[in-house]
Design brief:
Four copies of one chain form a homotetramer.
Chain A (H helix, E strand, L loop, with lengths): L2 E2 L4 E6 L5 E7 L13 H7 L17 E2 L3 E2 L2 E2 L4 E6 L21 H8 L15 H17 L3 E9 L25 H14 L5 E8 L13 H10 L4 E6 L10 H4 L3 E2 L2 E2 L7 E2 L2 E2 L4 E7 L9 E4 L5 E4 L14 H23 L10
Antiparallel strand pairs in A: 1-2, 2-3, 3-7, 4-7, 5-6, 8-9, 9-15, 10-15, 11-12, 13-14, 16-17
Helix pairs in contact in A: 3-7, 5-7
Chain lengths: ~350, ~350, ~350, ~350
């Protein structure tokens, strides 16, 4: 399935080195003002080539709006967005087409479909996430008009963790890192890593403020359940936590449960979700990214004839894919929220303001 | 949404203290032999009242098959399963109906729906998971006939972790613990905990062996994405990992990527999934459970009039809900797998055996 | 698929002669007052055994509410309804189990599933429609509170058509016939038919008044498209028309297009739907029912061994299944409308009252 | 919803006079050989400008394949198709943007969304059906390789019906008419109609041969139910019949039920479907198209300020939209069939060949 969401539904298409990538957004509320230029900022935040620490693919990623917008306003009909792949270098894929790269989807696509587009990873490339970010631009605008804001930062690279936290510095460094004083250390860390030819994992934290209580559907449509699926659907993700996540395992109930008072919650171990439904607190999600498997250090593998081979990946590749994953995680958070918001007013639009609200 | 799965679709219903709980399984392949008795084992593994370490609700949980089975065989039509709530003690809920228990879904249901069934947690009770286990009995039977087997164990209680691993002892102790020598320690640990009135979290690991390569759909229907949603949909879950999970963050690419040879994979950091599709290795998922919030130790909260109150939960409650969560996690793993298996043969039924297969 | 609707989602289960039939209604708005007694009227309108012109199965069809209702109000959680099959006569099905009845689903179920529940038609029995009517009781209540009312009548039996139209007499005769003076003629017609051992088809017309403009989704979720699917999903239906239907084929554009003025539409050839979206006029649907194929007059067929046989159906069977189809068609109309209403407010809840409205 | 199908899922986008129209086909089986040229024939059959009896829009309608095809083979990933709108004449829409045309979706889109793209009918234009035909090219290829073939013809224009039937002449005349001798009569009929400024309705019949028994899902996913929705989703359709359709109303059961023998069915009143599942006979569907409402003859209406106006439609418009609807109905039939075929093998792939098969 290449569609995401139930009511605000995003369908993406396109391969890394095909003619284009794009998406169709179905179910978007009408009357949202949007211009092609508004996609530029978030796409640039995600874009490759931002720093020497991310790979060198350099694309304008200009979004063309093909439908669903009339005189600058969404009309309620499907919005198609298109980005041409202008930097899909023509080269000989004959070699790579016959190899299975360890840690990649080459072997699994081959086994599933019996055929595989080997150009730049084909459909399994993280290039697909560009359209998630693009679609989320519209979602974030609608959410923002309702006081819901999404943001994120990197929370770990390899074994380096932030030793301070200041949201205001996150956008000011290439790592989305919340502690400015550590940035030189990270630069050196990444330089050494790149030199070594190896890669490393990362952890991203994303949050949503202003989410009213009541978003989310119990049981199988839980807000946290859908967030988990959304984050795990991003390339290279291996773990998802809501609120205290795995730290909850060693906690006592007296510690974890967030006390309530007329002035609000005393803490937020829950990460803003109880019983699958938002509490009104900040929704907080942590996401684990594995180290990229595309390395110039050789790996043992096999080819399509079953022969033992040694795989060496040349070309541009991020030594830490998690570095530019923050905007992607934000995008998925926004897409889940708008979908749940629409579903909530569908079923519970008759329910008036419920008291007491803290 | 109270339905799970796309083609093997389970819809559950029922409240903790209503007349009954049940489910409808739609899309089940015809020709599976099944009897009411076959549900007993897994339901008993999950059941409350198994040991003094789990709560005292004692129900026969006899499953009645209402439809979809003829002369002991599934017919392809929807299978409805019903369990009457025989131990729903009649008592006065007037008090609890007016309180919001910290760490529970009371407040969020109230905010969402403007109305709340307070009896035993209503729909948000873990009683609902009974039907997941029941539905998975059929899924596991179909999977088992194809060589796919699901199992699980507890991997952490509070800060206690297994110091050895032996699958053969897991079913022999009330904790699904993989190291028999630690069981007395755990007994003492839980006794002390129960005495203190507090609760603690837990981690469950579930695995599937025999999954062929090719199950799972790229992008938004990834096998790992759906597993994440499935596990996070279980009550009290706060985190999900596939393969090495959050440990991947501090790993190097040379360490994480699993080398391949004609004899198979050299390791399984990926947890049996690459690009959202099964590799043919063991699928491995870890799940974090928070400590239960229902404690006899008082908590600060508010009531429906906004007054400050102190909440004390009496009655039966597990000091560690994770202890009997293993069969539930197994069930969700099985339900995801059968659904993906059916989807795979729908789209790729034309694809013959793909070589090389390792 | 045994589920109907996207947001107000009804899943039915049960076979004609199994232990029970039932349904689960997911996505129902909270706060609707409902009691078990409220199902009785519509179920009775649909029930077999109403007159000598319908078959003799006589069941109380008492609906048990298993979940989703607390203190007489819907809670927003799934509503499970159950009816026990009390008149499922135990008899020997060995004979019928080996025969394929012409005009029935026996052969197609056999070919599809390789197994077939032969008892009373199993899942393919019109008994399933009981739960559609039950689910629609709740839908009609919600719609009624918003001024939307559904009603229907028989518009043809065999070659007999009404020669007058008076809504007030429809519920007063066993045929849901809109012209009282013809009822004796119909009684005689049906008596002669039953005596002959043959059966006849019928046409039902259902309408919804008070539907505001704007319900329905263009393209593949059109209001008329979903009505067509809904009606065609009823047993024995072979045709569906919206507004003028097939009569439109011979009309001129100047005749068909409904002129508009500040006082409303001048006519309603469209049947209340344009571009898949309601116009604010009466939504009108006509439905064709084939004659039942269960006859005591012998038919040529084959058995499961491929032998030529002669099939004679004994037991109770309606000579005109369309006679009691009116409440079923009404139910499907109501189910489509509530689902579209919820979807409309999900996407377009930001759109205020739109002028001019006629 | 702008998506059609459950497993072979087509999502269309685009407005009549926007930059482009397109679609995304998700769930397509891998390994189907396809080239851009293969779309040309069916698109040409549907295209406007074919004869003087259809409107004058003249577009190359060249399909660009953006994704999902590698070296001429489908890969199992989403196939995006794009057609640029090259003949979207720039003109002043200020006038038409303020008018509601009778019989069109202008008023209903306005009421639903509060905003409307007036250019050439926007999203409600039949231009959208181009992508249905394009998507069906792939579906028909897959079906054809399995012996399933779809075809159609016009069965009525106004009050003219065929007086003979010969499939071999259908593609040889601009009306898809099955009796060649009537073509001159139809030419004269259409010339007179166009001269009068009026329009007329039409009936299309489409058939599928080679459908094996067993496709279709009982209850709400019936093959006939989905065909009804599919056809009713086409612009201007007001009625759908399966098999004998509304003629069944006046039939006797002895006449309608199709007798069976080891050599097959004696007749096909059912239209190839019983209980929602294919019988193995020809699947036959009839579709009623209303006369187009875009006429140069004036109609009474209102404008967006509620003033009484007279609407006159200038520009190119078909006097009978049904004439080129045959390929569209064929496309929808093919799309329903491939989706049901994939769903069937998902659920019933374990069921071997079932005997006796006639």
């Amino acid at each position: 399935m290449n569609s995401f969401g139930h009511l605000f539904r995003v369908t993406t298409f396109g391969e890394s080195h095909g003619p284009a990538i794009g998406c169709v957004i179905d179910g978007c509320p009408p009357g949202i003002a949007i211009t092609p230029e508004e996609f530029a900022n978030d796409l640039s935040r995600r874009a490759t080539g931002k720093t020497r620490h991310t790979s060198a693919r350099n694309e304008a990623d200009a979004v063309e709006i093909l439908s669903g917008v009339y005189e600058g306003m969404t009309t309620g009909t499907p919005i198609a967005l298109l980005i041409r792949n202008t930097d899909a270098r023509s080269k000989d894929y004959a070699n790579i087409a016959r190899q299975f790269r360890p840690g990649h989807a080459d072997y699994t696509y081959w086994q599933k479909y019996g055929i595989r587009d080997p150009r730049g990873g084909g459909r399994s490339s993280a290039r697909e996430t560009t359209m998630r970010v693009a679609a989320a631009v519209i979602a974030r605008k609608w959410l923002g008009e309702r006081g819901v804001h999404v943001r994120g930062h990197l929370a770990q690279i390899g074994d380096v963790v932030p030793v301070g936290h200041d949201w205001s510095v996150v956008e000011g460094n290439p790592f989305f890192w919340p502690h400015a004083a550590q940035v030189p250390e990270l630069e050196a860390y990444m330089d050494a890593l790149r030199k070594s030819g190896d890669s490393v994992g990362a952890k991203v934290v994303v949050e949503a403020d202003g989410v009213p209580p009541g978003w989310g559907e119990p049981i199988y449509g839980k807000l946290d359940g859908e967030l988990a699926a959304a984050m795990m659907s991003i390339n290279a993700v291996k773990g998802v936590e809501i609120g205290d996540g795995f730290a909850s395992v060693a906690q006592r109930g007296t510690e974890h449960r967030d006390a309530m008072s007329p002035n609000g919650f005393a803490s937020n171990h829950a990460g803003g979700i109880l019983g699958g439904i938002s509490t009104g607190q900040t929704v907080r999600v942590a996401v684990a990214f594995k180290p990229t498997s595309s390395l110039r250090l050789p790996a043992e593998s096999i080819d399509v004839d079953g022969n033992v081979i040694e795989v060496v990946t040349t070309g541009r590749h991020d030594p830490c894919v998690g570095i530019r994953a923050t905007p992607i995680c934000e995008a998925m958070l926004a897409l889940v929220l708008i979908d749940q918001a629409l579903r909530h007013r569908a079923q519970c639009g008759d329910v008036g303001p419920v008291q007491p609200r803290i």
